């Protein structure tokens, strides 16, 4: 029997550096990469387009089931409105169920690096490598603020910090698939690490798990 394809789960809160890290790991290891947050962002956007409430389960499930590749190419999936809508639809069990098969199918044949909130706990509990990427709330707010300024969105650090705290609370407190480190995940705290150091730390963890 051939070994199971390599699946690397990268979970953690917003702006901890998991997207950059996961993308680099995928490129280094020649694996497909999926930013699962985009699924929730695109779902939230569709609900907003329909002038419905992202917290409405029926509207949000219908949006999740109607997603097409064009939804992921939209240029309005980032920013405070998209952040809040994504986090609201992500708390709805029927939305998560609708998106589960796609995520599992993505990694099933060739392996993959997936980043999100519940990859190691729910989507791929059997992933060979599970990383939990975190950083202090202050540092994450600082990074997101700098990212928004870099994209030309003028905003206050205090506002970014309070919106991020609300989103963290919603992502962590929801009943279904809350943000949590899997029991067998390795945590990397990137508060004092730059992107290169975080990547090297992650690569060491992947390599050591492969040599076992
Ligand atoms: O990673 P991100 O910031 O793009 O995620 C957007 C929202 O989607 C975030 O509030 C949490 C949610 N999400 C989730 O619940 N589960 C995932 N696997 C990925 C994202």
Plain-language structure description:
The protein is an alpha/beta fold. It has one domain (7-210): P-loop containing nucleotide triphosphate hydrolases (Rossmann fold, 3-Layer(aba) Sandwich). The protein has ten helices and five strands. Helix 2 (37-49) crosses helix 5 (80-89) and helix 5 packs parallel to helix 9 (157-173). The model has no long low-confidence stretch (mean pLDDT 94). The structure holds 2'-deoxycytidine-5'-monophosphate (DC). 2'-deoxycytidine-5'-monophosphate (DC) binds at residues 14, 36-37, 40-41, 86-87, 90, 116-119, 167, 171.
Largest sheet: 5 strands, parallel
The CATH topology annotation reads as Rossmann fold
What's the number of extended β-strand segments?
5
Structural category is alpha/beta
CATH architecture: 3-Layer(aba) Sandwich
By CATH reckoning, the class would read Alpha Beta
Blueprint (SSEs and pairs):
Layout lengths: L6 E5 L6 H12 L3 E3 L1 H13 L7 H9 L3 H4 L7 H10 L3 H16 L3 E5 L2 H5 L5 E6 L2 H14 L6 H17 L12 E4 L5 H16 L2
Keywords:
10 helices, alpha/beta, Rossmann fold, five-stranded parallel β-sheet, 212 residues, binds 2'-deoxycytidine-5'-monophosphate
Give a short summary of the structure.
55% of the residues lie in helices and 11% in strands. With 212 residues, it is an alpha/beta fold. The two termini are 18 Å apart.
């Amino acid at each position: 029997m051939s070994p199971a394809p390599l699946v690397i789960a990268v979970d953690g809160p917003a702006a901890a550096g998991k997207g950059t890290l996961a993308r680099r790991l995928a490129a280094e290891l020649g694996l497909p990469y999926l930013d699962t947050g985009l699924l929730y962002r695109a779902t939230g956007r569709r609900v907003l387009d329909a002038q419905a409430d992202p917290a409405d389960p029926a509207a949000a499930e219908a949006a999740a089931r109607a997603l097409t590749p064009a939804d992921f190419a939209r240029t309005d999936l980032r920013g405070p409105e998209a952040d809040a809508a994504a986090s609201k639809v992500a708390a709805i069990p029927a939305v998560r169920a609708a998106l589960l098969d796609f995520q599992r199918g993505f990694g099933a044949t060739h392996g993959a690096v997936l980043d999100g909130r519940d990859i190691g706990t729910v989507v791929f509990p059997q992933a060979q490598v599970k990383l939990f990427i975190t950083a202090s709330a202050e540092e994450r707010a600082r990074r997101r603020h700098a990212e928004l300024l870099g994209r030309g969105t003028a905003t206050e650090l205090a506002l970014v910090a309070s919106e991020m705290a609300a989103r963290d609370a919603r992502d962590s407190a929801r009943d279904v698939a809350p943000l949590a480190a899997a029991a067998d995940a390795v945590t990397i705290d990137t508060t004092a690490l730059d992107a290169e150091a975080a990547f090297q730390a992650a690569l060491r963890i992947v390599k050591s798990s492969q040599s076992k």
